[in-house]
Fold these 4 entries.
Entry 1:
Amino acid sequence: MNTSRIVAFGLACMLAGALADEGIAQVRRASFTPELIDGKPIPDHDTRPEFAAPAVWWNPVISPSSLMFYRGTQFPEWQGDAFITGLSSQAIVRIEFDGEKAREAERIPMGRRIRALEQAPDGTLWALEDGRPGRGGNGWLLKLTPRK
């Protein structure tokens, strides 16, 4: 997989709050115009030929907060997959790629707002929970390992 042309994730995050639609688009050519981010409705994906439709999108939104590509050895079946953490979805979403196509392969329910996900040098995953008011705004750091 060529990750250099995969994700316009920053744009998806920027659009999510104002326009209530989220997605991952493969970047082929960059040409973003103000009418897409000034509060106007998102047009149908096939109405603007100069833009590629997202490869994966969510509605209702997942409220993405971070993106990472897995390259570790602890979960060999996830090699090259992308992971998006969700705030409103309270989940970690795994995305599989097949050439030009992408799909949501798995939604891992966490039961809490996940702010970030990082891969440790040993291939395990660390998830950072969003702070909770009942704990003084402190979140938890969760280590994710394969089931034995």
Note: The chain has one helix and nine strands.
Entry 2:
Amino acid sequence: MLIFLLVLLIAGLAGFGYWAYTQGYLKSILKFGSDNTTKTSQGAAKDTVPPVISSVEVSSKAIKEAGILWQTDKPSSSQVEWGPKGSFGNKTEVADDPVSGASIGTVTHGVKITGLTGSTDYQYRVLSHTNGSADATSDTNFFTTPSE
């Protein structure tokens, strides 16, 4: 039981430490050098370097929907831009958005796109941003939905 409580305490401190670091509190205490951040008027640090996107893939395909997965090197938002092959024009809602303040973002992303048609070629690209960076955008990828 004691070991369990120690693990919980350490995990809690690690979570608090990460939160404090992302808010800029630890950076000023530790006096880091240039860290690619800028301060907002509220004093919270903004990460100005876009995340690096990797491992983009279609996780599942159904006739009318597809799941898209990817990873980033730091917590960031999740969004997919897609359309029939040859054009984009559709975007999912932004999820895990650190700009909104409702989330610190995520490094493992998963978005479901819906409204697809069977036996159709689609193209897509993923977009992610931190609380102060421009969107990072993946290369264009393709998939075909199964027939009805």
Note: The longest strand covers residues 65-76.
Entry 3:
Amino acid sequence: MAKENKNQKAKEKENSKEQSKKSEGYTIKIERQKQVKRKPETVMAKLRKELKGKQLTIGYATTMKAIAKDEINEVLISKDCPERMAKELEEIASKASIAVQKLNIDKEQLGNVLKKPFHIAVLGIKKK
């Protein structure tokens, strides 16, 4: 009996996955695809992806130069970035209508995430 129940359940699943419709002498089969839930991309995953694509500017000076050349789309600042640098970046980025995001990690962790042997206080994501 248990095997019969399993066979019936398997047949029911097959029937629910494939529905056939008859239309003017031929059969059309429609298969349902599984819906895959994707997790929203985290900031760290986004940074790693951008680093591989060489779409990052690392450091205060290079980010400021890139902002001046209008190459930056977004500026990321670590939580322990010096206030003077952060304020100056925010002012210039707001004038250039560039998004500024303060990260919840410090300079050392940001360097480790990007697999660099130094601390990173400021990052810029280039326009594509």
Note: The radius of gyration is 26 Å.
Entry 4:
Amino acid sequence: MRYVALLAFLLVPFLFAQEPAKPVEFASVLEFRFVAQDDDPSQPRLPVVGGKETVVLEPKVQLDVRAVAAAKTEIDDFGRPRIALTFTPTGAKTFADITRAGIKRRLAMIVNGEVLSAPVIQSEIREGKAVITGSFTKQEAQTVADRINEAVKASQK
């Protein structure tokens, strides 16, 4: 008769300690989450790539990589770089619902646990195309678009 050893680790709450808040978990490669409106000190602050700002994210994933078709950089009428997102048909409908309900809120784009950008929603976006403006350099905008496109490609494998 042969025996196999089984080692298991179980997380059990300590009886006299207060349970720590659950950290935000990142399940997919690309996610969109609202930035928390209340600064909860029990939640981790995540840096926004390329800046000096940190944000606290709400735990609920609003959209994931399946909602995005592509990203690209564009130059606006004033010569400033911006990021243009195109959503899938299903993603466009969900994005319209999110933007309608989230006007004046910040919606973070997260790739592999890194916050790429967290723009303020200015209006409902129904057409399935969004434009992210800001003080990007051309290279920063291209990097964000490239990271989004890499996540989209990885999800299609």
Note: The chain has one domain: 30-155.
